[in-house]
Amino acid sequence: MDAAGVRQQRPRVEGGREEEILDATVAVVAELGYDRLTMDAVATAAKASKATLYRRWTSKAELVVDAISRAKGCPMPEDVDTGSLRGDLISISCGDGGFTDELPMSVVAGLLTALHRDHELQKAFRELFLAPRLEITGKAYERAVVRGEIAPDVDVDLLSVTLPAVIIQHAYVLGIPPTDDLILRVIDNVILPAARGSQAS
């Protein structure tokens, strides 16, 4: 059974306490990282009992994935049709939930090491956190194809992951925080020229 199925069978925490626990979990992940996060630390931050956490979430991985997928501190980017690929990518990448949103980036940083070796965390992170965000980006590229902004000979799947790949390289390998200027440089100097494919020559 996947993580979503497990969560659906567990009793919810009453009132607004569940959201408070999720927000506290996100804050602890951002501060300590996944490896150092414990249920005790989350319980303390959320002013809840550890028993309350275990009644709702069976494991640390389940709690963390639920938190980063639903907590207010990690908003989803909006799917806004601006009329151009450039405008759509700027909206997705620079708005709430985008690459310049400090909390989601710090949360991802806190999970990177564990994602390589914790298969339960990796699967849930991919399905519950990444998938809906990739869907929004995918729609932006689909609209661009329909508008004729992307040449027929372009590998759209590869193109669609180029921007996040460059941002992640800068943020987590080079230690350069994402900025609107960096995002615009990648869009204008890499993404849009590549979208034109052989038509650019």
TrEMBL record:
Ranges where the HTH tetR-type domain occurs: 15-75
SUPFAM superfamilies: Homeodomain-like (SSF46689), Tetracyclin repressor-like, C-terminal domain (SSF48498)
Pfam families given in the database record: TetR_C_11, TetR_N
Single GO MF annotation: transcription cis-regulatory region binding
Transcription regulation found in the keyword field: yes
Superkingdom of the organism of origin: Bacteria
DNA-binding region in chain numbering: 38-57
TM helices/strands, residue ranges: none
Keyword vocabulary terms for this entry: DNA-binding, Transcription, Transcription regulation
PANTHER family membership: HTH-TYPE TRANSCRIPTIONAL REGULATOR RUTR, TETR-FAMILY TRANSCRIPTIONAL REGULATOR
Protein name: AcrR family transcriptional regulator
Native source organism of the sequence: Kribbella solani
